[in-house]
């Protein structure tokens, strides 16, 4: 009897240990650091099932959304983080930086003040406050403040980036780029420093160096948005064939990424290579899992048909899109144009009224 009770008690204790949210948190962090974002998301959600007010789990989910550039979802998770634990300093600072990047300086300033109240010695909080001042154009004495931060932590990537932006704003591109090169050497995986360096190189018309740096950062982090931006630069400097090669390489490397396929189709459309554009778009329309991707593929197929003056095909594709989404603005605009061509003003007005309900500022519809 005693042994049965003892064994039962041990099993209960063991079950309780398994169900502690800390275990899922640690597994989530490990999976995130290894690049398994789906696995990390699952573990953080498991932790939240056990403790719905676990700020660290919400913060982990916010970092996943940040990695995937889902900014609205990231904001939601950060708001949940600081709601669950107002003293969560990294959450307050990251929320402030997100507000800053979206141009909401007053909200960013509020978060910076909260962060400073939580820890007056936090260099990250001080950096956020400095970035807000730079965003407002209040630069008096700001460079000294940034240099003080770098004296305390020379590899503080955000401070390196802010100082470089200040130097570039004063026309000191050589100093700014040298500073960024040194910062990247200290923080080789810091994507933001790479992208800032590339942006300043483009601003200063150092295109070949920007091309070289895109290749370097893509070799480290081959992400879809980097491929797209790199192809845009190659197009900008007249290297269209190289831009196509980069996009095709990206599609081959990430065959499930429809955004890259749309970029490749846009490249073909812009260069009037309509058969190749339609080949890519038909494959998206056939294979895409979501109705929004299927609709967009048909819209772009309709644009190709319009370039070929095939109005029957344009109308057919617009109708197919509207069957998926009756309020699709692009499809309604296409159909309105076709109806006007046929002299059907009443039908065109009906479509345009729906467009203006969805987008009151649409100049095309007005």
Unreliable spans: none
Distance between the termini: 84 Å
Mean pLDDT: 91
Number of distinct beta strands? 0
Helix-strand pattern, N to C?
HHHHHHHHHHHHHHHHHHHHH
Biggest sheet features: none
Categorize the overall geometry: globular
Report the β-strand fraction as a percent range: under 5%
Number of helices: 21
Based on CA atoms alone, the radius of gyration comes out at 26 Å
Helix fraction by DSSP (H/I, runs of at least 4) = over 70%
Based on secondary structure, the structural category is mainly alpha
Tell me about this structure.
- The protein has 366 residues and is mainly α.
- The chain is built from 21 helices and no strands.
- The chain has helices at residues 2-18, 21-33, 37-50, 55-67, 71-84, 89-101, 105-118, 123-135, 142-152, 157-169, 173-186, 191-203, 207-220, 224-236, 240-253, 258-270, 274-287, 291-307, 311-324, 329-341, 345-358.
- The mean pLDDT is 91.
């Amino acid at each position: 009897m005693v042994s049965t009770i003892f064994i039962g008690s041990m099993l209960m204790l063991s079950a309780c240990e398994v169900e502690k949210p800390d275990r899922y948190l640690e597994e989530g962090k490990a999976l995130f650091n290894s690049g398994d974002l789906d696995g990390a998301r699952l573990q953080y959600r498991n932790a939240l099932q056990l403790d719905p007010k676990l700020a660290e789990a919400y913060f982990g989910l916010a970092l996943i959304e940040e990695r995937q550039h889902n900014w609205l979802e990231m904001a939601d998770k950060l708001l949940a983080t600081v709601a669950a634990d107002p003293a969560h300093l990294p959450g307050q600072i990251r929320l402030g930086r997100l507000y800053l990047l979206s141009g909401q300086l007053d909200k960013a300033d509020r978060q910076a003040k909260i962060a400073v109240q939580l820890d007056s010695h936090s260099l990250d909080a001080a950096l956020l406050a400095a970035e807000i001042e730079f965003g407002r154009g209040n630069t008096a004495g700001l460079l000294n403040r940034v240099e003080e931060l770098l004296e305390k932590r020379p590899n503080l990537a955000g401070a390196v980036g802010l100082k470089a932006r200040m130097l570039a704003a004063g026309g000191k591109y050589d100093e700014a780029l040298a500073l960024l090169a040194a910062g990247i050497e200290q923080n080789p995986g810091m994507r933001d420093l790479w992208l800032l360096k590339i942006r300043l190189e483009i601003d200063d018309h150092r295109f070949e160096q920007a091309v070289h740096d895109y290749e370097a950062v893509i070799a480290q982090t081959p992400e879809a948005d980097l491929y797209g931006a790199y192809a845009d630069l190659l197009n900008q400097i007249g290297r269209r064939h190289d831009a196509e090669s980069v996009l095709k390489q990206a599609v081959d490397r990430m065959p499930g990424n429809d955004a890259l396929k749309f970029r490749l189709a846009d490249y073909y459309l812009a260069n009037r290579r309509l058969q190749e554009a339609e080949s890519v778009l038909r494959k998206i329309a056939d294979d895409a899992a979501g109705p929004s991707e299927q609709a967009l593929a048909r819209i772009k197929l309709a644009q190709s048909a319009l370039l070929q003056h095939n109005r029957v095909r344009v109308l057919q594709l617009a109708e197919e899109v509207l069957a998926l989404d009756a309020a699709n603005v692009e499809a309604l605009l296409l159909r309105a144009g076709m109806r006007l061509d046929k002299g059907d003003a009443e039908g065109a007005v009906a479509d345009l009224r729906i467009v203006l309900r969805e987008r009151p500022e649409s100049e095309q519809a007005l």
